[in-house]
Amino acid sequence: MSQREKLLHDLKTERQDLTKPLPKILIIVPFLFFISLVGTIFLNVLFFLKIKEADSLSADWQQRAESEAVQKIQTEKTIDLIKKEEQKAQEIHKWVEGAMQIQPLALSVSRSMGPKSSIEELLLYREKNNPNQILIQLSFVNGGQKQLDDTLSAINAVGYRAYSANQSSEQGGKVNYQATLILQNNDSIRKELTVNYEQ
Amino acid sequence: MNNKHIACAVIGGLIILMIQWINVSFEKLKLANESEIISRSSYDSAVIARTAEQRKMVILKRKTEVGRRYLSQWDPYINQIKSAQFGEAFINMKIKQAKVITISQTFDTIERENSLAIPQMLNVHIVLEDDYVKVFNWLAKLESSVPSARVSSCKLTKGQSGNDLKMDLAIDLPIVNGKGGKVTKI
Fold first, then answer.
1. Angle at A99 (CA atoms; ends A94, A105), nearest 5 degrees
2. Where are the domains of chain A?
3. Which of A39, A97, A123, A198 could cross-link to A132 by cystine, CB 3.0-4.6 Å?
4. Distance from CA of A42 to the nearest CA of B (A)
5. Each residue of A160-173: pLDDT tens digit?
6. Is B30 an interface residue toward A (CB < 8 Å)?
7. pLDDT bucket at B183, cuts 50 / 70 / 90
């Protein structure tokens, strides 16, 4: 026995186990411990990486969804603008319909007067609710019904049609005429005239 | 229970703790995956909503094309009179240019309620008396130079002498950027 072993032997002498040894099956416990330790480290690292990946994908989808939502809001704004433009267009169309030139009408009425007839008063006005309709009030002297027919033909020639007409004659050859004038489509007038001519 | 039993129990406890940790991590992974699926489905629904809205816009654009073209064609004429002051100056300039005798003239700015396109209009009331041809030519020139002007009333009577004509006119001029002037609500 070497000097060193001798010294150790002096410190810890051989002795009997105080407790019973564990069942042999429990030899599995340290193995299970080491397997669990390795497995835990491996699986947790794997799960950690997968969680990171899923989080990043989730953030990516969310960002994309937000970008889609922004695009949708922009589209909605454009739709609103288009709707407003359409509303404006309708309003302007209504205004323009009621802003047709009145001078050709007034001129045609005054030019339709024969050499013996003369206009006492010609009033052309538009109603606020229906500005595309023109109300005419005409008073003239001399010429009677023939002059009125000539004037109505002149009105038709500039594309207006009279309805709800009222006429009255006074002493001294004065004729009063009232009607509502509606602008006709010139093409339809032309078509009607052609059809009449052909018949 | 001796020390060996305690050591075994401690190691067993540690094994259980490690399994529990794996389980917790797995649950977290499941949650993360579910969250990703939810995000993806929210993206899908956002795409569907955006596509539907864009389709709606395309259909609306196509439907309103004629109206919008009409608007763009008329827009310069509707915007011709910038303000009430400009309108007054414009009418006065037209009268001066034509050298037509004016008996009276009044200007009134009228606010149009619920109107998006034409929020205000300048109501011009003029009484002219001059040569028949001159007066008619003046009106024709005015109407052609401001196509959006609406003659709401035109009264013609004989003038004081020979070929003269008295024209009592009410004209409405649309004002889009109306500022200043006397405003009357209608």
1. 135
2. 24-97, 103-198
3. A97
4. 10
5. 898 888 888 887 78
6. no
7. very low
Q: Residues near B77 by Cβ (< 8 Å), separated by ≥ 6?
A: B146, B147, B148
The number of helix segments (H) and strand segments (E) in chain A equals: 5, 4
CA B122, B126, B131, B134: dihedral to nearest 10 degrees?
-10
**What average pLDDT does range B38-63 have in this prediction?**
95
- The domain spans of chain B are 1-63, 81-185
The helix (run of H) or strand (run of E) holding residue B120 is strand B120-131
Task: Please check whether residue A56 touches B, CB under 8 A.
Answer: no
Q: Is CATH 3.30.70.60 what the domain over B81-185 is classified as, yes or no? A: yes
At residue B133's C-alpha, the angle toward residues B128 and B134, to 5°, is 50
Residues of B in contact with A84 (CB under 8 A): 116
Distance from the A17 Cα atom to the nearest Cα atom in chain B, whole angstroms: 12
- pLDDT tens, A6-22? 666 666 666 666 777 78
Q: Which CATH number fits domain A103-198: 3.30.70, 3.40.1350, 1.10.150, 3.10.450?
A: 3.30.70
Chain A interface mutation, best of B22, B81, B100, B128, highest count of A Cβ atoms under 10 Å: B22
Estimate the share of chain B in helix, then strand, then coil, as percent rounded to the nearest 5.
Answer: 55, 25, 20
- Quote the CA–CA distance of B101 and B134 in Å, as a whole number: 10
How distant is the Cα of B58 from the closest Cα of chain A, in angstroms? Answer: 9
ipTM greater than 0.95: no
Give yes or no for B48 touching A (CB within 8 A).
no
Determine if residue A172 is left, alpha or beta; phi over 0 gives left, psi from -120 to 50 gives alpha, anything else beta.
left
Let me know: does B29 contact A47? Beta carbons within 8 Å: yes
Alpha-carbon distances, residue B152 vs A102, B28, B137, B149 (angstroms): 9, 77, 18, 9
A91–B116 CB contact, under 8 Å: yes
- Please write the tens of the pLDDT for every residue from B89-142: 999 998 998 888 989 999 999 888 878 888 889 999 999 999 989 999 999 999
